[in-house]
Amino acid sequence: MKFDTVTIKDIAKALNFSTSTVSRALRGSYEISAETKKLVLEYAEKINYRPNPIALSLKERRSRAIGVVVSEISNNFFSEAINGIESIAYNRGYHVIITQSHESAAREKVNVEHHASRSVDGLLISLSSETVDLNYIKELNEKGMPIVFFDRITDEIDTHKVTANNYLGAMHATEHLIFQGYKKIAHITSSPLLSIAKERLNGYKAALEKHNIPFNDSFVKYCVHGGMILEEIEEAIEELYKEKIKPDAIFTASDRITTLCFGVLKKMKTKKELGFAGFTNTKVGELFNPPLTVVKQPAFEIGQTATELLIQMIESKRPVVDFETRILDTELIIRESSLRKVEA
Questions:
Q1: Where are the beta strands (DSSP E) in the chain?
Q2: Which residues belong to any copy of the HTH lacI-type domain (predicted)?
Q3: C-beta neighbour count of 220 within 10 angstroms
Q4: Among 72, 87, 156, 238, which is 20 to 30 Å from 109 by CA?
């Protein structure tokens, strides 16, 4: 069965107007009287007229689509960031096409190249934990493809970037544990290649140095798949507890690592009280037992800001040459998991 769509010609024929008059009226042109606009818009609504996106893209030489590349949609941070992206994009008339790298550099490359081949108007990219070679993104950038990095960014490509203040977020969380009396604080983080992992490690180190606590390299464990593999988390914790000096607190540096690590520790049922805090945007942190102390990132706002900057690039009539890196503040939410119990 053929699906017949309503066109501008149909509206013009029904109202006895020219197609150019109807087209201008639908666009709100100043050349068309208010009365004519009202007639056209009311009739278009009555017959459920919708502009043909293919025709519009050919006319405007734009697809009105934005490609998004993230590691994993189920990650609490990225699900919130995507909501922020969509809240801006759809209000500005853009569709959002989302792909996942699953922390694979090869899959990330396929996703980016697929978006480019589909002629998206721009790309929002959060790099995978494996990404080292950025040449294919550099080539797209040099050819004029608008690209904005968010959360997991890079200094190798000159464009807009949006991320959280990972350094201060990590420093404040580590300091909070120190103020609670913990002195042997371990740090479980993701791939050392990621900008966020480097920034959070530096914030953790800065807090230790500020309070004259020696940095212990054996207290830092890397989970290069970002917590996507449970065994990786278990191995990191097991290695910490094999050390002669065992940690009295753990600070975790990513969403999935935080929730999985906390679950593994609960199963271990360690005899000594263990302080715990971590980066995560989970909305059920207060439902954990004990409730989780977390560093919450402004994920929704990061998504919004990145999208606004990208659309500015897309719609700019001249090549954009001045770029900025926007760093948004995090929030430390203190709950029982990090509070040291006072003995009676």
A1: 65-70, 95-100, 122-125, 147-150, 160-164, 185-189, 220-222, 249-252, 275-279, 293-296, 325-328, 331-333
A2: 6-60
A3: 18
A4: 87
pLDDT digits (tens, 9 = 90+) for 287-342: 888 999 999 999 999 999 999 999 999 998 888 889 999 999 999 999 999 998 76
One-letter amino acid for residue 261 of the chain: C
Looking at the DSSP bridge assignments, the partners of residue 327 are 163
* pLDDT over 60 (residue 3): no
In the predicted structure, residue 260 carries a pLDDT above the cut 50: yes
Domain boundaries, the chain: 8-51, 62-164+299-329, 166-296+332-338
What's the fold here for domain 62-164+299-329?
Rossmann fold (3.40.50)
Residues 89-132 have pLDDT tens digits of 999 999 999 999 999 999 999 999 999 988 899 999 999 999 99
Whole-Å CA distances, 235 to 72, 85, 193, 223, 229 = 22, 36, 20, 9, 10
8-51 CATH fold = 434 Repressor (Amino-terminal Domain) (1.10.260)
User: Identical fold at 62-164+299-329 and 166-296+332-338?
Assistant: yes
What are the strands of the beta sheet with 293-296, ordered from one edge? Answer: 220-222, 185-189, 249-252, 275-279, 293-296, 331-333
Residue 314, token pair as written in the block: 């897309």
The mean of the pLDDT values for the chain is 90
